[in-house]
Structures are given as C-alpha cells and as structure tokens.
Amino acid sequence: MKYVFGPISSRRLGKSLGVDPIPSKTCNWNCVYCQLGRTRPLANERKEFVSTQEIVSEIREAVCQHKPSEIDWISFVGSGEPTLHAGIGRMIREVKSFTEIPVAVITNGSLLSLPEVRADLQPADTVLPTLSAGSETLFRTIHRPHPDLTFAKHVDGLKAFRDEYHGKLWVEVMLLKEVNDSEEELRKLADILRDLSPDAVHLVLPTRPAAESWVKLPEYDGLMRAQAIFAGIAEIVHPAKGTLDLNADENIVQSILNVISRHPVMHQELEEALNAEPKITDPESVFAALRKSEQAQEVLQNGVLFWASSSAKETE
Ligand code: SF4
C-alpha cells in the first residue's frame, strides 16, 4: 500500500487506519516541533498530488482486510498537511459511502479560511486542527508558516469552521517548554479557545524527535499551569501506548520502516509489538536488520529511545 498505513496506535484515536494523501513533508507550515523534519520548500497550493481514486481504492482494500474491531478510526493525517490535497473532500465522501468506521482529519487548520476546504471537511466525524499560539508573533515563532498565512486568518478560519461544522471539533494545543507554557501565553490561548468553543481541547506534548533540537517538553509546573488555565475547556491527552499492527506487510522490517517513515516509534513500544508477534522468534534480529537497512536510526529524546526514519530529523 502506498497511501494507507496501520492500523497504528494513535494518541487520540485508538486503532487508527492512517491515510497519507500527499507527498512526504508537503506542508504550508514549518513547525519547530514537526516530527518529520523541516519543510523545504513551503507549499500552499492545493493540488491533486496523487490520484484521488487510487487513494480511495487503497482505503477500501485496507478496510476489507481488517475485522471491524481492528479499526477505530480512518484518519487522514500523513506526512504533511492533508487538506492541501484538492481531492480530500471526495475521498471522505466516498469512504463514508462504503464504511461506517468514523473518519477523522488531523490538520493544521491553516486552510479553513477557504470556504471550499471547510465544505470538504463537512462529512468527517471529527476534525482536529491545531492552535498552539495566542498571538501573531508566537504563531510565527512556532509554525513558521507560508507568507500568505497569518494568525488572524488562522483564527478566523477556525471560527468560521466552528460555525458551519456539525461533527466534533477537537483542537490540539502543542505545549512547548519556555515557548508557549508561560501564564501570559496560556491566557491568550485560553481566551481564543473559549471564544472558539470546541468540543474538546487536547494538550499534546513534543514527545517525538522534533525538527529543532531546542524543542523541549514542558516541565511539570508548565503542564500544571496549562491545565489550571484551561480548566473547563481542556483535558490533557498524553501519548497512548499501544500495539503496532505488524501484520500489515509480509516483510516485518519493511512494515516497520513504512510506519517510522511517517512518525518515530518508541523502542519500548516496538519491542512489545515484536514480542507479541508469534512469527517473530528473535526481536533483536529485527532491530539489527533495521540498523543494517540504513533507512532507520535510533534517536534519544528526553531520555526516551525512538526509532525514526534516517532522513526524518534535521537539526542545527
Ligand atoms: S507538524 Fe504538521 S503542520 Fe507542522 S510542519 Fe509538520 S506536518 Fe506541517
């Protein structure tokens, strides 16, 4: 499969069948915390990067290959900004026509100021846009967006979508140490969130290796401060531990490489998945094969060992 992966354990969506509709790291933001490295160059034009019909066919095939209990969500996510694909609306509508599995779209929300993008996302059951800054300055510091994208446009797009959308709107706030975890910045964010009135606000943390090496997890007091200031409108969602689906591909090493090309995986999580897989008798040989492949690397982030794509991390 070229565009569909998993199901994988997701922070917010349980067993998630991922759909990656655009070429690697095609994005209009260049977030300092991005787990895929830096965006070069920024892309802000919507296109049918790959055939919409081909993607829908892969989703249909993947759904047929799994029992209903094995997939909680079909998630449009991938290695960049999925709403840049001009066919995303048709993909969602077609998926809704052949399965009752709920559809989620994980987006930076940057294109919600466009009426056609808001219309495209209407049939989704849940949309998870990002709002991690309460001011233009911080918005630019964290997301380093395409020059056409401003903070005001971003917030206006979110509000317009909130007014029109009938599904669940879960806003994701990425909390970064000494960047947006001060009382002043959190209060600015809380004001916008209250006004936006989403169905849920998820605080998430940069637990995976980030594009910039200076990105750090907030300290305990930063997390507590955020919880206190967002009281009543937010819940903290910590990264979920789960089981990787290593049956997705006949070649187990290739299956792991497919997953880590999209996001890093904790060594411990991978080890648990390999130990649970009956056809793997020697997990160490799989790790050795990953090292030998030269397509994977081990990265230590905040004291936790991850497996990441060898090209994923670009730091100073
Ligand atoms: S985190 Fe998402 S929005 Fe930000 S640069 Fe990476 S892919 Fe784009």
Q: What does this protein structure show overall?
A:
- Helix content is 34%, strand content 16%.
- It is α/β, with parallel strands linked by helices.
- It has two domains: 237 residues, TIM Barrel; 58 residues, Arc Repressor Mutant, subunit A (Orthogonal Bundle).
- Helix 1 packs parallel to helix 2, helix 2 packs parallel to helix 3 and helix 8 crosses helix 10.
- The longest helix is centred in the first third of the chain and has 14 residues.
- The protein is globular, with a radius of gyration of 19 Å.
- The protein starts with a strand and ends in a 7-residue tail after the last strand.
- About 2% of the residues have low confidence.
- The structure holds iron/sulfur cluster (SF4).
- Iron/sulfur cluster (SF4) binds next to loops.
- Keywords: 4Fe-4S, Iron, Iron-sulfur, Metal-binding, S-adenosyl-L-methionine.
- InterPro entries: Aldolase_TIM, GTPase_Obg, rSAM, rSAM_sf.
> Which whole number gives the mean pLDDT?
89
Q: Numbering strands along the chain, what is their spatial order in the largest sheet?
A: 1-2-3-4-5-6-7-8
- How many helices? 10
Count the domains.
2
Task: Kindly state the number of beta strands.
Answer: 11
Q: What is the CATH architecture descriptor of the largest domain?
A: Alpha-Beta Barrel
Distance between the termini: 34 Å
Rg measurement, Å: 19 Å
CATH topology of the largest domain: TIM Barrel
How would a crystallographer describe the biggest sheet?
A: 8 strands, mixed
- Estimate the global geometry from the Cα principal axes: globular
Q: Helix coverage percent of residues?
A: 25-40%
CATH class of the largest domain: Alpha Beta
Multimer state: single chain
Strand-residue fraction?
15-25%
In the predicted model, the low-confidence regions spanning at least 5 consecutive residues are: 239-243
Class from secondary-structure proportions: alpha/beta
Bound molecules: iron/sulfur cluster
Reading the helices and strands in chain order gives: EEHEHEHEHHEHEHEHEHHEE
> What's the CATH superfamily of the largest domain, by name?
Aldolase class I
GO molecular function, one term: catalytic activity
Protein name: Radical SAM domain protein
Cofactor: [4Fe-4S] cluster
Keywords: 4Fe-4S, Iron, Iron-sulfur, Metal-binding, S-adenosyl-L-methionine
